[in-house]
Amino acid sequence: MALTAACASTSSLDSTGEYVSDTVLTAQVKAALFNEPTLKSDEIQVQTHRGVVRLSGFVNSTADEDAAVTIARGVVGVKSVRYDTRLK
Fold it and tell me: What is the pLDDT of residues 33-49, one digit of tens each?
């Protein structure tokens, strides 16, 4: 019984399944950004929480920002994308 309670999701903690899904989504978004030759993906950080992807870091233009958001939204399982990128 204690094991079940330890795995239950709470408002402040994610279940193991949610954490793994977010980790997988983060990796998939990073890979998709990396595969876009026009983006400097090493300057864009990706974090995911409950399917919501947050992009931060630096981009060269608003077109790059738009491309990064579009790419992230195209990854299956992403619920929404928030961005806090800055222009160089």
Answer: 999 999 999 999 999 99
